[in-house]
Each structure stands twice: as C-alpha cells, then as structure tokens.
Amino acid sequence: MALNGVFYSLMILAFLAFFVSRFLTLKTVKGDIRRLHSRPVYYGLNSLFLTVFPAVILLIVWSFAQSILIDEKVKQQIPENFITEDAPLNLIMSEVDRLSEGLKQLVDQGTLSATKVENEDSELFGIEDKLESAGVFLSSSISPEVLSASRSKFAMEAFGSSTRNWLAVLVSVLGFFWSLKNSTAEFRARNHVERITLFLLGTAATLAIFTSLGIVLSMIFEALRFFGMHPWTDFFFGSTWAPSFSAGSELSILPLLWGTLYISFVALLVSVPIGLYSAIYLSEYASKPIRAIAKPLLEILAGIPTIVYGLFALTTFGPLLRYFFGDGGFLGVEWMSDSRSVITAGVVMGMMLIPFVSSLSDDIINAVPQSLRDGSYGLGATQSETVRKVILPAALPGIIGAILLAASRAIGETMIVVLGAGAVAKFAGNPLEALTTITTRIVSQLTGDLEFDSPETLVAFALGLTLFTITLGLNVLALYIVRKYREQYE
Amino acid sequence: MTETFHTNSLFNISDKTKNRNAAERRFRMYGILAISIGLLMLLVLATTIILRGTSAFQQTFITLEVDLLESKLDKKGNRNIDDIKKVSTFGYSPILVNAMKQALEKHEISTSLKKKALGGIISKSAPSQIRDFVLEDVNRIGQTVVFKFLVNGWIDGYIKGRYSRESVANSKFASAEQFDLIDQLLEVGVVEKKFNFDFIFGADASDQRPEAAGIGVAMVGSFYLMLVVLVLSLPLGVAASIYLEEFAKQNVFTDIIEVTISNLAAVPSIVFGILGLAVFINYMHLPQSTPIVGGLVLTLMTLPTIIISTRASLKSVPPSIRDAALGLGASKMQTVFHHVLPLAAPGILTGTIIGMAQALGESAPLLLIGMIGYVATNMPNTISEGLLSPNSAMPAQIYEWAKRADPAFIERAWGGIIILLIFLLTMNTMAVILRRRFERRW
Amino acid sequence: MKDQTYLDRESNLTPGISKISAKNVNVYYDDVQALKDVSVEIEKNAVTSFIGPSGCGKSTFLRCLNRMNDTIDICKVTGQILLEGEDIYDPKIDPVQLRAKVGMVFQKPNPFPKSVYDNIAYGPKIHGLANTKSDLDEIVEKSLRRAAIWDEVKDRLSSPATGLSGGQQQRICIARAIATSPDILLMDEPCSALDPIATAQVEELIDELRENFCVVIVTHSMQQAARVSKKTAFFHLGSLVEFGDTEKIFTNPNDPRTESYITGRIG
C-alpha cells in the first residue's frame, strides 16, 4: 500500500468515526441530547481523534526509526576493506543513498520490477544507462559492493514502508472500534477532547521551538565536521581567505569579518544620525499631521525587499559613485575601479536601516516620561537643550540597544552586499574599494555544485554559525538593555 | 524705555538667550534635514524603480507574413510528423529571413544587410515559435501565416533608447544599419512597441533572449512558496501561541521559549537558508530548488513573526471576556476557541499577512537552496508538480536577471521589482485595512 | 507713549505689593474652555495658594504663569498676565527667560536621571549663571542649603538623584528650581505624591522660602493651604470664585460655593 493510499484510508475512517460515534451516542439517549454529558460533536471528535492520531504517530515514529535502522544495517554490509581514504564511509553511503533512490524511481516508473531488483542479480548490470535516462546521475561507475548494498537498502525500505503502511491502517481501524465503546451518555467526551487538544497545542509550541533548536544543532554539527577537516586556528586566526579546488585552501574568517564590519560601520554612519535626528524631530517637534505622514513614509523604506536595494546599489548608486570617483570620471580622480565598493553597499544599507533606527528610537524617546520634559522646560530650558541634555541621556541605553539591533541587521544583511560589495577578501582601508563579507562568501560557497564533504563547502556552515553567534549575541544584549531601560520607567 | 524702569526686564533678550535660540533653530534644522534626507532617499528609490522598470512592460514586436514552405519544412512532402520534427529550429531560420525580405519588398525598403543580420533583427525565439505552430498541425505547411514576433533585445534596446548607433559601433550583436532599417520599419508600421503581457505571465528565457524572458513562472513559484508558508506557519504559529498565552504556566521553560522566539525573529535570513540546506536538502534529501523546501525555510522565518503578533492580539483581548465565558460555565478550551480566538482573529490575520509579505520579498535563503541559476521555463501543471519540481521565485528571478550582464535583463529585473512591489503593497494595504476596520479599543 | 502705557498698567496695581497681575485670563483646550475670566493679584514675598476640586482649572492657571502651557499644542490663552508690569504673553518675550525667572515644581518629583549635583547645576548651566566651576559649586551648595536638604545629600552629590526617597527627591526638585534664582516659585501640588513626614518637611521649607521668593502653590488639601499660605484663591469649574486672605476664606467666605467646598459639601 502506498503512502497516499494510507492517507485516503485514514480520511475515510476519520469521517466514518465522527458520524458513526455521534449517531450511536445519540441513539443511546434516543435523541435527547440533554441526557448526554457533552454535546454530540465532542463524541464524534473523540472518535475521530482516536482513529487518526495513533496511526499518524505510528507513521512518523516508524519512518524515523526505519531510516536509522536501515542505515545501520547497510553500513554493516559494506566490506571493511572497501572503505579507503579516497572513498570514506560517508561518501560510499551517499552513493548508496542515491543509487537506491534511483532504483526506487525506476521501479515507480515501471522500467524495472521490484522483484527483479530484489532477486535477479545479473539483469541489473547496465543499469547506469537506465538510470541516466530516468534523470539519475551517478558520480562514478557502480561497483558491485555499492550495488548490492543499494539493492538490499531498497528491499528493506520497500518492506519496511509497506509494513508500516498496513500497520497504520490497522491501528486506525482498531482505534475506530475502540472509540465506539465510548458512545455512552456518561462518557466525558468533552474532557477527553479538550485534553487531546491541549496536548496538540502544546506539541505545536514545542515543535516550533524544537525545530528551530534542532536546526541550530545541525548547523553546529556541520561546522564541527568542517573543523575536523580544517584547522580551527586557521579559520579564526589566519589572515587569508583563498578557497581553492585543489587541496590547501586558506579559509580564514578575519578578512571577511573586516569587510563585514567595515560595511556595517558605513551603514551605521549613514543610518544612525539620520534615523536618530528624524526620530527626535518626529517625537519632539513635528506637528501631528506631519508625523502622521512622515513616519509611515519613512517606514516604507524598511518594507522594501532587500533585493531592491541590492539592485539599486549595483545598477544605480555604484555606477553613480564611479561616475564621480572612477577612472576618467567627473572629478578626474581614479579612486574607484569597480562600481562595487564598501561605500556602495554601506550607504545603500544605511538607507535601509534609517527607519529601523528611527522607529526604535522614536519608541524609546516616547517612553521618556513627560515629567522630565516638564521639569526641564520649567527651569527655562529650550526644547533642544531638553532633548540633548535630558531626554537623550535618559534614553541613551535604549538608543544604544536600537543601534545594536541595527548593527546586527547590517552584519547579517545579504542581498545588498552580494550585489553591491564585491568579492575581494583582504584588509583594505579604502572605502571606494571592493571588499567582501561573511554573508557574500556563504552565498558563493553554497551555490552551484555542492560537495558536502569538502572543507570549501563546509566552511559556509562555520561562517554561518559565527554569523549566527554574533547576531544572536548582539540581539540578546540589545533586548536586555532595552528591557532594562523600559523597566526603569514603568 | 526698558532701561528706565527695569534692569532685568523680560523685554531685554540677553545675548545668551539669543545664542541659545539660534542653537535651538539649528537643532530643529538638523531634524528637518534628517527627515528630508530620509524622504529624499525614498523618492530617489521610487523614481529609479519607475524610470528603469516601466520599460520592461513594453516590448518591440515585428509583424511578418511567413510562408511555411514545404521545400524547407517537409522535404518528402508526406506530412509525416516524425519527419517534420527532425527539422530543428535552425531549419526554420531561412523561412524567417524570406518573410523579412518579402516585407521589405512590399514596403519598398532597400537594405544592404546580409541574411544573417536581417534575421538577427528578430528574436532568437521566433524559429521555435513557428516550429511549435507547425507541429501543432502539420497541414499548416504550405500556408502563409501572419506572425507577430519579438524583436531582438539589442534592437528593442535601441527603440527604448538604451543603445545608439555610436554605442554599437564595435558590437557584434547589433549594427547601425540594422537600426536604420528598424527606423524605416517603424514608420511603415511593421515594427511596433506594445504592452508585453508575456513579461508578466511568461516564462524565463535563456540569457541569449532577454526579450523573451518573463516573470510568470517565478510568480507561480512564489505562489507555491506562500502556500507552503501559509499552510504550515499559520496553524502551527496560532496553536503554539494559544498554548503559550492561554495555557502554559509561567516557568523557566516558557521563559526560554519566550526568549528564543523574540531572538529567532532577528536571526539573519541567510542563516535560515543554511539551515534549510543542511537539514532539508543534505539530511532529509528533499529535492533541491523546489518550492516545498523554500516554503519550509520561509516558514521557519515567518513563524516567530506570526507567534509574536498572535500572542499580542490574544493578550489584547480583555480578561473580562474570559471571565464572562468562564462564569457561564464554559470550559477554558471553549472560552478560548469560542470567544478569545474569534476576537483576536483580525490581529492574527494582520500579523500573518505582514509575515507573508516579508517572506515573499525574501531572497537570501532561496539562493542557498538553489532557487537561482535555474531557468524557470515550465509552468507546473498540478499542485504536486508545483511543490516538488524545481522553480524560481520572484525575488530569486530578479536576482538571477541582475546577475546576467545584459542591460536588457537589468531592465527586466527592475520591471520584476515593480510587480513584486505591487504584490507587497497590496498585502500591506490589506493588513492596514484589516487593522483599521477591525481594530477594537476595549 | 510706551512709558505712558506702562504707567497706566502700573497704576492699576497696588504699587510695590503685586508681583503678578492677571486680568481676564481665558484658557481653551481646542474647543473646551478650561478657565473663564480669571483675574488675580499675587503678592510679593508671600505664599498664595490655589484650592478647588480637581479639574477646576487651578493647575492650568498656574501653568499659565510661566507659559508652561505653550508646550501643549492645543492650548490657547487669552487675556493679560503681567509680571512686574510686563505682559508675559507679549510675542517679544522669550518664554525661556521667563521660566528662569518663574521657577516651577511639579506634582510628582521628577529629578533627571543624573547625579544630584548635575540636577541642581542643570539650570545655572543652561542659563550661563556660573562662569567657573567654583561658582557653580557655590550655587549648588547654596540652593541645596536653601532647600534644606544639604545635610542629607552633601556626601552623595555624585550619586543618582533617582535613588533618593520621594521627599528628598521633591526637595531636590525645589533646590533645582531655586538654583536659577527665580523671583517666583510655582508649585503644582508639590506634596500630593509624598507621605505625611515628607509633606511636613516640604511645608516647612515653603514657609522658609517665603522670605526670598514669591511662592504660588496649588494644593488639594485645604489644611495645607491654611497652614502655609497668606492668601488663598478658590477655583470652581474654571472660574475664580473667591480670592482673599487665607484666614477669611476659611472662616468667613463670601461665596456660598466656597463655603460648600470648605465644609466638604462639594469637591
């Protein structure tokens, strides 16, 4: 039985369960629903839940267990002398995975029959052509060891899945009949249904958290694999970023970090003064109608997708800068050789961050109690003196929090730097030169053909993990500062 | 007069005060300046988008009468479809050149252009357009049919003012003579610039044919992405929020969840792309470049947004409503599902729409799971194909075009941005209207 | 001619006694009239208190006296308020200078989140009253002494003022207002957020301040008005009902409304 067969069976059983149990319950009280403990719909739902959920849980648990068990079994089948340094176990296993996946496709398409794959040895050689015509490409020719492992994997999977599917339907049917015995007036259907619902809600909450958590763990795992292949000292303390396809890549994060921080600094240099002064003006000076128009207009800047900014940097702002500073340019200086540069990416990123800084600062300035303003005005301070000497110092922690949040945004920003910053990894100080960033390198290492076993690919996970740690740290710090700040005035 | 009765009269504005007032005015100016710069940037961005993007919606077409010559297309003359299929698009080029020549004769235009340059005026997609037409019904061979073809991207660029005779002086793709001819053809109406629906609804084309590229397939890709995001993140997010807000007890565990969620919302989007690559593609072996994987990644990104806004709107339902329901003997679960949730629904919906709009404009994670570098040419036919076969998405398609060096693709990238922004604007307007319409003040 | 007008104004006052003279003051918040035709004469070197039920306009009137209402966009003031004969609502007057001369203390203690020293030094600094650091030190010490809080805070001038007790904070605010050496001190229910002991301290302080300043105090408590003030004005529903010597207002009011309020029938 195929998986969608199980799906349809469960649907039909669920439907039946709901109406049958509802009908039976109503029959026991001869249609007088006042004698029931719960409303009839709860009896139906109770049956429905009992029919569906155990089966679904079985499907999920079984699938996970099956994939782990089969993997173990297949690993044991590969002869030890077959594993060499050139072909480590994980490489062989991925080959096996792909081949058994290909066999499955061929069987699904009807090119091969399942029994043939499982039993008849000789028929299978020459299978490469068939696979290729089905769109499955293998990196090397198939060795008998790999083929036999793949075949046994295929056989085990086929057997396991079909057992699982039949069992799931069986469990569902059992659940259905079991639930029918609860079709009595005394049965506390509502309480049962609510308990199950609560369990479901709780599961959703945990799921939302644990997927995120598990995924972070997986990234750590991949990063650790990278550090197993490449010295961590070079990654954190080396001075060169030079991935090469042959061995001997130098993969240090420092030049990338330099580019990232430099561009983020330029972005903050643009966005913080503009954002902060805008926030001050909007919250302290602007009349209501001006505020009502200017604030949402500024916030549009934050809602524009970053790809738009990236394209703007690449095709409009960069060339404009180059027109002024480039070879044979307007100013007659030759400071810029490419339209991608630190300034190109930094200024455009700054544009994007303006509303970020301004709306956060606006909130924070508004949280400063009016009594402080009154106190200052009452002493004869002008509005700007009040802002500079009373409000800003009082709001300083919050504003620092806002700037940190903006910095974390800038460091993690991808599209603008991918399109506007360039690809040169070095410690350069000229802001009109191209530099590269962590995010840009992640994109370039992880696009195109990927080998998940080379340090050149896996370094992206280490970069990602570092990026994640930096931004998370900044964020936690910023949220902590802002929260402390708010508590002060609550 | 003031000196006569008061030394410290208020009418005596001291120098100090004058200075202070000047400082006040300066400070105020800085504020106005800052806002103006911010708004100016918005204006510049908007103008750039409009100026550079609108031309993508227009395309130059050429109308030609094409003789579907039997001698070229069906040499055996037996209308056997298998034989006719053997004629590649290359074999259709002479027919095109012929049609071109006829058109020139008809309008008494003379040209010094050679065959290849003549054919080069028409898009490289034209031969396959005729071929598809012929293969649909082999009996059309021998007829004379009026076709409307796209004009090559370089020629189109000349008509849109991107190229001039000087700028193509050394180009091997276009020549001044071709431009001369186009000017004449424009005059007689054989060539015309028209609104190009294929840009909105069509498929992407290879980098040789910018004039044929459209964003339609990527739009469908984005639609499937959003479908996955909606189906997964809305129920999961709402269920999680209800649990956290209404049922969970305050303890260390819920505190951790709280902190995790608020921090997840600020994780750089590219990190989600890396996670998607590691977990969904490398570990779970889901097919690369597909909307299902993209949707899963974007779901992880959207979930915190939805949870935060849902919790906020659940919180805004006053406790008195809960008390009222509980007082009537409703169970806690009934209270939540019958009263609290419906009252919070507009807020939840608003948050969902905003989260989806963010996801729709997001491109960085899509790059990593392979939704670029891929020419999205096929419209998916079924839902499962839509989810499981490789596709692009609007922002990824725009990025893809931006990377191709040809200015004709840059124009399309800006055009794509206009379409993307129209979607985002619609979604955000919907959110604003929902909020205005259903916002309650308790 | 201007001298003439000035003399005309002066002639309306009782020379040498009136510090502030308000005539027909009306205040509007948008369309709502908060004060109706208030005219009052406030004496030098005396404490004047404004009493009345909440929302009667007494605080609004107080805030007119140093143009604090300017900071509220929707507020409009008509009529005439003369400070030593000068119209404080004259467009040529800078409210900043006015407020240095007419200090204000607010309902809730509102020290800036800075050190005690910086709180006091803030006013003198912005108005440029001290040329040297030692001048400033002197002003700070003098103000704190006058506000009768020097002994309590002299050892912690650099610690944050927000860490002090409520009564201390309010006296810091008074010291802060004194530091710009104003002629007049306006106090808007200065004790309403304080406990009885702190209230007693502040009241004692007000009594001492009377010698050097013209003090105007808005209060909710009739006992307080009776204790500290020489003159009392009773406001009701936006108008000034009765103004006169405190003793007379509390023992033998002219207006039946005042009597009702004093005896607790309205308010």
Structure description:
The complex is a heterotrimer of chains A (490), B (442) and C (267). With 490 residues, chain A is mostly helical. Chain A contains 17 helices and two strands. In chain A, strand 1 and strand 2 form a beta hairpin. Chain A starts with a helix and ends with a helix. Chain B contains 20 helices and three strands. Chain B has helices spanning 2-5, 15-53, 70-73, 81-85, 89-106, 115-120, 126-136, 153-159, 176-188, 197-201, 216-247, 252-264, 269-283, 291-315, 319-327, 332-361, 364-368, 383-388, 394-403, 407-438; strands at 58-67, 144-150, 191-195. Chain B has a three-stranded antiparallel beta sheet with strand order 2-1-3. With 442 residues, chain B is mainly α. Helices cover 39% and strands 25% of the residues of chain C. Chain C contains eleven helices and ten strands. In chain C, helix 4 (116-127) packs across helix 5 (133-146). The radius of gyration of chain C is 19 Å and the shape is globular. Mean pLDDT of chain C is 86; it is low at 1-15. Chains A and B meet through helix 7, helix 9, helix 10, helix 11 and helix 12 of A and helix 2, helix 11, helix 12, helix 13 and helix 14 of B.
Distance between the termini of chain A: 62 Å
Greatest chain-chain contact: A-B, 89 and 84 residues
- Uncertain spans of chain B: 1-6
Q: Estimate the helix proportion of chain A, in percent.
A: over 70%
Q: What profile does the largest beta sheet of chain B have?
A: 3 strands, antiparallel
Q: CATH superfamily assignment of the largest domain in chain B?
A: MetI-like
- CATH hierarchy: architecture of the largest domain in chain B: Orthogonal Bundle
Kindly provide the radius of gyration of chain A, computed on alpha-carbon positions and rounded to a whole number of angstroms.
Answer: 32 Å
How would you describe the shape of chain A?
flat
Number of strands of chain B: 3
What is the CATH domain class of the largest domain in chain B? Mainly Alpha
**Number of individual domains of chain B:** 3
SSE order of chain A, as H and E?
HHHHHHHHEEHHHHHHHHH
What is the mean predicted local confidence, pLDDT of chain B? Answer: 86
Q: Would you list the SSEs of chain B in sequence order as H and E? A: HHEHHHHHEHHEHHHHHHHHHHH
The strands making up the biggest β-sheet of chain A line up spatially as: 1-2
Sketch the major β-sheet of chain A: 2 strands, antiparallel
